[in-house]
Design a protein that fits this description.
Layout lengths: L2 H7 L40 H13 L4 E5 L2 H9 L7 E5 L4 H11 L5 E5 L4 H5 L6 E7 L11 H8 L5 E5 L17 E5 L13 E5 L2 H14 L5 H11 L2 H20 L4 E5 L9 H7 L6 E6 L4 H10 L4 E2 L9 E3 L11 H6 L7 E4 L5 H12 L3
Parallel strand pairs: 2-3, 2-4, 4-5, 5-6, 10-11
Antiparallel strand pairs: 1-7, 6-7, 8-9, 9-12, 11-12
Helix pairs in contact: 2-8, 3-4, 11-13
């Protein structure tokens, strides 16, 4: 089945009792049993819900995997993966990553005896040099948030597999429509389904996809035992959002390319971070492992003062100043004070995330209107 068709039909089965074409919202906390221990496969909604199961099937199919699990947020999905580990285990992860992931690793899991190494993952040698007998997991984002760095998923997986190290890829920025890490050798794919999968900025949710049954069972045990599950209404909303993933992503990519090129040619704009540029450090890898380059862009002004950045951030009219990304509407974000504020400034600066970096989530509006909005905010004088 081609990706566009899959987006519409994944996880969708007519309701057997009514023939309803849309998956019903099973708004229930428990299920009546015929006798003690005799049921229809459903006992309690934290463990099983038909709406959630339909979504989890869709998650698996979209990522070309066998199994999918839905969580109450992307951070909850990340939390479940780290709970596969034990005190003394070590994780190698990127030095350019979502601030919420960094906060979870440093403020929550480090105190339980798990050690994290933050490295530049654009060079695989940096990963290999940190592998030791305690390494259990390599966690990577590609493209990264917010500097749009690219990591070679296939090369990392080839490095990890002989050593029995799990590879998890945060695929949120690309979405399953543009990139499928399981096909490239990854063990687990994580999404903040809040973003492109849902696509309408109206739900918080996370997802994990994998091929290994034992790994799925371990993660399902964590899901039901720790209880970070989404409600059926949220599952319904993400199922609905997925049906337009293909057309939305195509427009995000089209608009993103136009705006990235426009920014690069603007006299007041300095560096533009977007993996679609041929001179992007790992453009060749992005071109191989991604179908297109997405709608996420970061940039800096030539005037690197906070006053100049603040003026742009406060002057857009269509680009709403807000956290998150991946919705149909365009957003503008200041990572240093918003999405990445939990990362110490010295760490941010060392890894290339300046105080004045601006991040765009390019929506699916008319691109001429979006460019006009950026033009009036940045100015030409």
């Amino acid at each position: 089945m081609k990706p566009a068709t899959l987006c519409i039909h994944a996880g969708s089965h007519p309701d057997p009792s009514t023939g309803a074409i849309m998956t019903p919202i099973y708004q229930t906390s428990t299920y009546v049993q015929e006798a003690p221990g005799v049921n229809k496969g459903y006992e309690y909604a934290r463990s099983q819900n038909p709406t959630r199961f339909a979504l989890e099937e869709a998650f698996a199919l979209l990522e070309k995997g066998k199994y999918g699990l839905a969580f109450s947020s992307g951070v909850a999905a990340t939390d479940a993966v780290i709970k596969l580990l034990a005190p003394g285990d070590e994780v190698i992860c990127g030095n350019d990553m979502y601030g919420g992931t960094y906060r979870l690793f440093t403020k929550v899991f480090e105190k339980f005896g798990i050690k994290f190494h933050y490295v530049n993952m654009q060079d695989i040698a940096n990963i290999e040099s940190h592998i030791n007998a305690n390494t259990r997991l390599i966690w990577l984002e590609t493209p990264t948030n917010p500097l749009m760095n690219i990591t070679d998923i296939r090369a990392v997986s080839a490095l990890a597999k002989p050593r029995k190290i799990l590879v998890t890829v945060d695929n949120t920025f690309a979405s399953p429509y543009l990139q499928n890490p399981l096909d490239l050798g990854a063990d687990i794919v994580m999404h903040s389904a809040t973003k492109y999968l849902s696509g309408h900025s109206d739900v918080i949710q996370g997802a994990l996809m994998m091929n290994d049954k034992e790994l799925r069972d371990q993660l399902y045990f964590i899901q039901k035992s720790c209880g970070a599950v989404p409600g059926p209404m949220d599952c319904f909303l993400v199922l609905r959002g997925i049906k337009t993933l293909h057309v939305r992503m195509e427009r995000h990519c089209e608009n993103g390319k136009a705006i990235a090129q426009w920014l690069r040619n603007h006299p007041k704009v300095g560096k533009v971070y977007w993996p679609g540029f041929e001179d992007h450090p790992n453009h060749a890898i992005a071109k191989v492992q991604m179908k297109d380059f997405g709608g996420m862009i970061s940039f800096e002004l030539k005037d690197d003062s906070m006053d100049a950045a603040r003026k742009v951030l406060s002057s857009t009219k269509l680009f709403a100043l807000a956290e998150s990304l991946g919705g149909v509407e365009s957003l503008i974000n200041h990572p240093a004070s918003m999405t990445h504020a939990s990362i110490p400034r010295e760490e941010r600066i060392k890894n290339g995330l300046s105080d004045t970096l601006i991040r765009l989530s390019v929506g699916i509006e008319d691109v001429d209107d979006l460019i006009e909005d950026l033009e009036q905010a940045i100015g030409r004088e």
